[in-house]
Amino acid sequence: MALSEQERKLLEQLEASLMADDPKLADRLSGSAEVRVHRRRAALAGLSFVLGVAVLIAGVQVHPAVSVVGFLIMLGAALLGINSWQRVGDDGQPSKPQQGPPKSDPPTSDFMDRLEERWRKRQQGGDN
C-alpha cells in the first residue's frame, strides 16, 4: 500500500528527527550496520576462497590430504560468501527472508493478464 505525499513527508521528518536525536539507534534501525557486516563477511569469504585455492594447489605437490583441506576451505568460504551476500538486498538494505511459497514472477503475471484480456474480449464478442 502506497503512502500519500503527506505521509511520506511526515515519515521523512520523523526519520530526520530520530537521526538527529540518536544516530546510533537510527543506524541500527536502518540496517546499514547489518549490511556492512554481511558485506565484510562476503569479502572475507572471497579471500578465504583464494586461500583455499592456494592450499589446494600446494597440496598437489605436498600431500593429497592437504588438497582435500584446501577444497574444504574453498567450499566453506563459498557457502559463507553466498549466504552473506544473499542477506543484503539489491537496494543496500537487509533482505527479509521469504516465508511461504515464492511469489510468481512478472512474466507469469503478464501471461495471466493476457489470458484475462482475451477472456474479456471473447465475452464481449470482440474476438472470434
Walk me through the structure.
- With 128 residues, the protein is mainly alpha-helical.
- It has a domain at 30-90.
- It is built from five helices and no strands.
- Helix 1 packs across helix 2 (23-30) and helix 3 (32-62) packs antiparallel against helix 4.
- It is flat, with a radius of gyration of 25 Å.
Helix/strand structural class: mainly alpha
Question: Total number of β-strand segments?
Answer: 0
Low-confidence stretches: none
Number of helices: 5
Morphology call: flat
Helix content bin: over 70%
Radius of gyration: 25 Å
Essential attributes:
transmembrane helix, flat, DUF3040, 128 residues, mainly alpha, 0% strand
Outline:
The chain is an all-alpha fold and 128 residues long. The chain has five helices and no strands.
Fold topology:
Elements: H1 5-21, H2 23-30, H3 32-62, H4 64-86, H5 106-124
Pfam families: DUF3040 (PF11239)
Organism: Tessaracoccus aquimaris
Protein name: DUF3040 domain-containing protein
